[in-house]
Design a protein that fits this description.
The chain has 10 helices and 15 strands. By secondary structure, the protein is α/β, with parallel strands linked by helices. Strands 6-5-4-9-12-14-15 form a 7-stranded parallel sheet, with helices on both faces. Strand 7 and strand 8 form a beta hairpin.
């Protein structure tokens, strides 16, 4: 197989799977790992991938890549709505409890569905959030008592961050926390590009009795700059596709339930 053919196969794998492994590519293409590494270097120089330990990932999965909230709402919108609806099964008929909703587009989809879900199930929920768009959606909704945690608002995500935000959340014990992620991987856990958002997410995870992560499959294998939680911190992962074998195995070992939307 010529180098151009190999590199075309590698680029196709990146486009469809989001990441590739040097060892797996060498085995499937019948060449040495050194040859694959040279191919990956050439493709990285062409801007088609980003090298990481043991392989490569799509350029959009780089550690500091963070789409705006508006861009996120436009990505996998149908999947996010389905994930949000599935996650709301945690709030059953007659539910009474405190729920902390993290900032993000999938958690935003959950907030949009929450008023109707609360009314249908005759639930009464104390909601806490640091996300301005979510607070706007849930203000003055019957059956929802809303508390908004303040702080410095990031323009990119419209979420409050900073020491005062973290301190306020650290003093809360929610029954449920719905958490968004930029990345979830077997090796690195839960991650996000911004240190300020990571600090808030970490406080949310530490303070919740049950942690429900909402993540579409594009987040699998992504390792953003800052880790804010381990897989062991998660009770339930709600997603739209089964994780790959390595991530599925690690989730199972960590005791995480995987719910498919």
């Amino acid at each position: 197989m010529y180098a151009t053919e190999r590199q075309g196969r590698i680029a196709e794998g990146i486009a469809t799977q989001g990441r590739v492994s040097v060892v797996e590519l060498a085995s499937s293409l019948g060449v040495t790992t050194e040859t694959i590494r040279r191919d990956l270097d050439a493709l990285e120089n062409a801007g088609l991938l980003r090298r990481v330990h043991g392989g490569a990932i799509a350029p959009r999965r780089a550690s500091l890549v963070e789409p705006s909230l508006d861009e996120r709402f436009g990505m996998a919108g149908t999947a996010k709505a389905a994930i949000a609806a599935r996650a709301l099964e945690m709030i059953g008929r007659g539910y009474r409890g405190a729920v902390l909703i993290d900032a993000g587009s999938t958690t935003g989809a959950l907030a949009t569905l929450l008023p109707g879900h609360v009314a249908e199930n005759q639930a009464n929920v104390d909601v806490v959030t640091h996300a301005v768009p979510i607070a706007h959606v849930l203000s003055a909704v019957p059956g929802i008592d809303l508390t908004v945690v303040g702080g410095q608002v990031r323009g990119l995500t419209a979420a409050a961050v900073g020491a005062s935000t973290v301190h306020a959340i650290e003093n809360l014990r929610s029954d449920l926390a719905f958490v968004g992620v930029n990345g979830i991987s077997a090796d690195f856990g839960l991650s996000t590009p911004d240190p300020g958002e990571a600090a808030v997410k970490s406080a949310i995870v530490r303070g919740a009795r049950r942690v429900v992560v909402l993540a579409d499959s594009s987040k699998f294998g992504v390792e953003s700059l800052v880790r804010f939680g381990r897989l062991e911190d998660v009770d339930i992962l709600v997603t739209d596709e089964n994780p790959d074998a390595a991530l599925a195995r690690t989730l199972d070992e960590a005791g995480v339930e995987v719910w498919l939307a």
